[in-house]
Amino acid sequence: MFVQITTFLVENIVAFFVILLLARFYFQLLRVGFRNQIGEFVLATTSWIVLPLRRVVPGLAGLDLATLLAAWLLQCAGLWLRVLIVGGEPSAGAIAGVALIELARYSIYILIFAVFIQAILSWVNPEAPVMPVFNAMTRPFLRPLRRFIPPVGRVDLTPMILLLLLFVLLMLIDGGVRALMAP
Asked: How many degrees, rounded to 5, is the angle at CA 118 between CA 117 and CA 121?
């Protein structure tokens, strides 16, 4: 029981910070402003790990590599701890690869969350102060779909189509991981 509780805590605490680091990375990549409740929270909870890394890891072509590296290293550390807790012998290569896959999965989860919140807010409160954050995060993914899928009546179906595509992508990632793990 102690192993399950410890594994659960490590997994969820690490996932919390990794998702925040990825959100910070995507906010900068997609030019989402940090002057809002979400942006300020993300900066406040991730600066402790990002700012020291920025002294060593420079950005590249507008990409905040320090934040991305921090997310990957933290995910690697979490996976390594989980393997040690259950009594396994961690393999550096396997942990590095699984961490990359987990970052891709978390990135998709962030986009799914943003699409859900953006769609709900567009119906309930389109003038919400956080609406520009979710619009900026989803616009690059919804814009190409809107070229091919016109609104039906006054209802935009592109968020639903994007969600379907993202869930299919998650299934493909899970299938690829299972295929790699098969003996």
From this structure: 80
User: Which of 33, 43, 64, 21 has the alpha carbon at shortest distance from 136?
Assistant: 33
Phi, psi of 63 (to 5 degrees): -90, 135
Query: Residue 78 burial by CB count (10 A; 0-12/13-18/19+): exposed, middle or buried?
Result: buried
Under 8 Å between Cβ of 69 and 53: yes
Number of residues that make up the chain: 183
Long-range contacts of 84-93 (CB under 8 A, 24+ apart): 85/3, 85/6, 85/7, 85/10, 86/3, 86/7
pLDDT digits (tens, 9 = 90+) for 58-71: 888 878 999 999 99
- Whole-angstrom CA distances from 31 to 34, 40, 82 are 9, 14, 34
CA dist., res. 166 & res. 57, Å (int) = 31
Return d(Cα 134, Cα 109) in angstroms, integer: 14
Letter string b/e over residues 115-148, b meaning 16 or more CB atoms within 10 A of that residue's CB: bebbbebeeeeeeeeebebbbbbbeebbeebeee
Asked whether 82 and 11 are in contact (CB, 8 A), the reply is yes
Full-model pTM:
0.91
